[in-house]
Structures are given as C-alpha cells and as structure tokens.
C-alpha cells in the first residue's frame, strides 16, 4: 500500500504473532534402578514440547539407585508448578524422589558467619558479579563483625547472639528467618557454632558447611597453627551437608593445595582461607544449580 504523497510502500499484512519465550527448567530425580526410566522421563518431556539441552545420569551399583539431572527448555507459558504437578504421574510409577525448578530463578540463600569473613566476602562478591546465581536475603551472625561487610553489599544483617542458655531461642530465631524470607539454602560460611540435632534435621539437605580438612587430626582452636607445628605439606577444605553428626555429613566438594617449609604460620592460614572460599563457592554453585543429589551418606554431583 502506498499512501498519497508518500514514496514508501507499507506492508499491511497481518503482523506475526508474538513469540512466547521458552522456559528453562531443571529436573533432578532418584529412584530404584530399573529399565524404562530414561524412556519415561524423555517421553514426558516430549509430550510437553521439551528440548533437552543437558542430560546427565548415574546408576549406582552399590545402592541400586538411579540418578538423573536434565536441563530442558519447554515452550511457554509452562510454569515449574504445572510441570511439577504433571510429572507426579511418572514419579509415582517409578517411585521417584524428584525436584523441578525454574533454572533462571535465583536460589534464595541465607549465609551464617561468625568472625572469620573470608568465605562470606567471597560468596557476596561472586553473587554481586553474577558468578553465583543466588539471591542473599540475609546474613546472620552470632557476632556483630560482619555487619559492615553485609551493608557494603546491600544485604540485611541480623545479629543473633548465642550462649548456652539462649541457644534454643537463637535457633528458633534462625528458623523464623528461614521461613519468613523463603530461604531455600542455608550456608555456614565459617559459622563457629554447633547446630542442635533438631535444627540439623529441620535443615536436612539444604544446609552446607565448610571447614578445613585437618579433621580429625587437628581439632579445636587454631588448627592451622597445629598443622604448622607438625610440618604439614597439604592444606585442604571440605564442603558438606550439615547433619547431627558433627562435620560428618555427605561431602559435596573438597580440594587441597601444596605448602612447604617456607610458609610461615600466617601464610598457612591465608592459604587455607583461599581454598576454603573456593571449595565453598563451588559447593553453593552446584547445589543452587540442582547438581547435587543425596545418595545415602554420599552425594552424586553432576558437574
């Protein structure tokens, strides 16, 4: 069509319908291993127009369980809630434990810390740069030391002192924050308090702790100084899920670095802090991406 006096032709055909963006979802599952699991899962995704962009699986011959993680794009306007409800039929048939999440939604993560702030700073920095796809609604500490750091990242800070007499009230306050802030993961980023058995059960599978890997050799105060006195040659860290058995929960990630006689005590401590921060950030990243599945006292980690 050419308007009178206008040299430009205009297309008056019907406009193309708007494109509905696909949703990106992550499905993780575990169940007794048997034939037909992959076929059933992939068939369900095909029924919903899904395009699998990443798939990993593992059959454990020791436990007889099958583990799977799938990243799938599904045409809109599907929601995680709708897919989760629909997948219930497949899950029931195979006795699956499963989770299905929107892969683009940031994982709401509450961080707990005491006086050592290196792991907290690393997590907040990685979050601020987009390296970690988490959202931190709060930092909780039994000391006021981390308040300034939390404020510098714009994160609310809650000082919850803990004494032997007030521990039940402090843990009740923590659970109140977890519920009120819709927290999905709790990270003990060098939080130097032992959680009660009841709190460990309440947070089972959604609380991660970090500690040095000198246990059980060097316990108590100043483990790095104890290690220095013994001339250790490896410094490491372990990130694991919190359980009632102190520092014995299912391990998510570990790493070590080499040291030698030239390291002074302070250099040994600094090296340990670096590896602690790196190991914890990887564990938080993998958990927030639904890459870690519990397998009894062990984990399956789809990196």
Short description:
The protein is an alpha/beta fold and 303 residues long. The chain contains eight helices and 14 strands. The longest helix is centred in the last third of the chain and has 24 residues, at 265-288.
Task: Describe this entry's structure for a reader.
- With about 300 residues, this protein is α/β, with parallel strands linked by helices.
- It has helices spanning about 35-45, 80-95, 120-130, 145-150, 165-180, 195-200, 225-230, 265-290, and strands at about 25-30, 50-60, 65-75, 95-100, 105-115, 135, 140, 155-160, 185-190, 205-210, 235-240, 250-260, 290-295, 300.
- The strands form 3 sheets. Strands 5, 6, 7, 8, 9, 10, 11 and 12 form an 8-stranded mixed sheet that branches.
- It has 8 helices and 14 strands.
* CA-atom Rg in angstroms: 24 Å
Helical amount among residues, as a percent range?
Answer: 25-40%
Kindly estimate the percentage of residues that lie in beta strands according to DSSP.
25-35%
Mean pLDDT: 90
Low-confidence stretches: 1-20
Please provide the ordered H/E string of secondary-structure elements: EHEEHEEHEEHEHEHEHEEHEE
Q: Can you summarize the main beta sheet?
A: 8 strands, mixed
Name the overall outline.
Answer: globular
What distance lies between the first and last C-alpha atoms, to the nearest angstrom? 57 Å
SS-based class: alpha/beta
β-strand number: 14
So how many helices? 8
List keywords for this structure.
alpha/beta
